[in-house]
Amino acid sequence: MAQSSHLPPARIPASRRRRDRHGRGLRGPLLLPHLPAWRTRAERFDALVIDAANELARRHPEIARMQFAVEEVPPSDPAPWENGVVLGRGFAAEPRAGLPTRIVLYRRPITSRAADETELVELVWRVVVEQVALVLGRRPEEIDPDL
After folding, report:
1. How many CB atoms lie within 10 A of CB 127?
2. Structure pTM?
3. How do residues 42-87 score in pLDDT, each as one tens digit?
4. What CATH number corresponds to the domain at position 115?
5. Residue 34 lies in a domain
6. Distances in Å between the alpha carbon of 1 and those of 4, 7, 18?
């Protein structure tokens, strides 16, 4: 009886099989890091807030000492004077606790009110200016005359 010269196929580790499907090589990224879609919507929103804060800090040096933060949605317990959906809040400094003045913007309520990217940029700017003015005890027009 003649022996068959066929050898069993070599076993390829599962990790390599997934990464090199159909022998076409390793998969690469779908988007390159320099393209705008590389960042998530939340990261783009954060960048808008940072840009607005930096621009205001350039105009008014006291704003540079403030902290800016972004949260998804406002807490479910609005203050008695807040009507409707809150877009942002300002918190005064608490020196005993070591906390500087803080401005918080709420991403989802703001993005849901903007029809496109241009409107979102304007709305973020307006909310940042209004919250900074509120914390500083000034009118928004004093912070940004174009408002």
Report:
1. 22
2. 0.70
3. 888 999 999 999 999 999 998 999 999 999 988 777 666 667 778 8
4. 3.30.2010.20
5. no
6. 9, 17, 40
